[in-house]
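Morning run. Coffee first, then this:
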Amino acid sequence: MDVIFGIWKLDGTHVAPADLTRMGDVFACAPETRRAIKHHCAGQIGMGRLAIGRNVAGLPPTCDGQFLCVADARLYRAPGIAGSLDLSTSERERLFCRLHGQFGNDAPNQLEGDFAYAIWDDKTQQLTLARDHAGVRPLFYFHKPHDFFAWASHPDMIVRSGLASEDLDVEAAIKSFVFDMSDPEGTLIPGLRRLPAAHVLRISSKGLTDQHRYWKLRAVNPIKDLSHFEDCATQLRDLLDAAVSRRLPKQGQIGAHLSGGLDSTAISVLAARILGQHRRNLHTYSFVSELRADLQFIDERPYVDATLQSEPNLYNTKITPADCDDVIVDAWADRLEGFKHQEEKVLRAAHQDAVDVILSGWGGDEIVTYNGRGSYAEYLVRGRWRLLWAELKGRSAVLGTSKARIFANEVLPYFLPANLRDLLRLAAGKEPAITLDQKLKSFLRPAFRNRWRGDIRLSANTKRNRLALFHRAFTAYRLESWALQGAPHGIQYAFPLLDRELIEFAIRLPTPFFMRDGMGRAIFREAMQDVLPESVRTRRKKLAPFPCSLMRLSEQKSEYLKELSGLRHDPRLSEIFDFDAVERALDEIPDPDALKASFVAEATGGDGPSMAFALAREPIEFARFLTGRLKTETGATARSDPKGGQT
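And here it is:
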């Protein structure tokens, strides 16, 4: 795989080879991963490529007439090319140059693929950056007007090479903590920006920037005839088959996430069947909870094992949180969450298996395997009451609960004002419903708590919900996080459920195709009849992830309370956090015996433990992040101004 980077000197000076070498050198690769840096300097412009993996060619940027190009890309469809698009690095970059010269800002719209590229036009003295429609491949930049413009696949290449400072934007960090992603371009580093998915950025010789969105998912020509359910399911299956096939390189080993859910299982099985036709196998990686003699629980194991038993071409590695205890990696300079230790274990296992690409089901929930949230509320407001009544009956049978309770839980919340919903819950003797971002905001001081917008709110319109979920910044953010984490290992991620042709079809599907006979994701379940084991295809319940992690949280409750006591003494942190609210949340963590009883109840068919208490440690971990990142010259924690910024 390739990591790209470059500098444009806007002050008239020439780019020195050492400037580019420094950007490549600061990128840390995993042990035993080969790397090769090549760059090209042409006066004020310099571009570089860092090739990472088992087989690295070390090719320089591509010069094609008036264009100079570097790209991090895999392409699946392109105009004028039939059949396989397993192109070489140079062939891909010449294609980008040709399309750029022909279509300009709309060039990326002619392609289906995962890509980020930079093209310098020597004739017009313009630099163009572009990113794929979903944001699979990341691209960051730092613009210092009248001085330089730098870009890179990985933010650390800009920050740690000294082109941008490592100062932390406290306000951006707090927004990240409460899942406010209203600024899809922002990072935690002042001045460091990301190019959003489906965007082109042009920079002129005067340093002026012009950003353009070349594609946006739209619901064009919606399907309205409900009698076409089976036909649409068949078409959905065909499109997914093609999406998976396109993402399987002709050479090398392939891996996949296998969680036991619908999305990852479908992708794994389809990929294994396609690979099996060429006598190739698929390596899969599953997260499960470690076993404990004192704890009875259910996790993803039965569903993963059912898939493995039905598909002989699947090799599997099970990964538990305990396996990740020895995984220590640096956090990224530009973001709050940093590396996921569990995923680092996947990457280590994939490296041992010589895997080059990992398939993931991420992005399916938003469009292709949408679970129908808001369907019943939509039927109510549109007067489709007969359909609503039939679905309430079906949902009641599926969940084993009353139609009135389903109406209260799955209809009213979508169109009643939040304060009215809370009053109704209080009247019923229940606590007001609280969303993830609302809970996280409750851990902050009022000066911060009410300033952040938080995540999107779904409505009584499923098409609008699907579009909002797809276009929210978090979707691309997660894709980007996996790309950044996989790059040091030379491993790329691919997402068949975000295939452009597939999602442009799925967004046309009517609401009743997603919620049918009380079951969500109905059309996808129909499409996967001969793909998924029945235990997976018909499962309706998400399990508590990593039961033993929840047990450890319960068992470490006193340690968190002790750490909280120490954090209270830092006056700077006290300006940000409402530590009384944090303490109340920690106090609500159930004792180990009570939590064990909840897992036993879930294992015997009852309700599992509430997940609300799992958020209690989030403010503690965020405080750790702040104390680690915000250091003044004297070594004290930097202070955040409640009005924004730092002091």
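The longest strand covers residues 67-77. Good start to the day.
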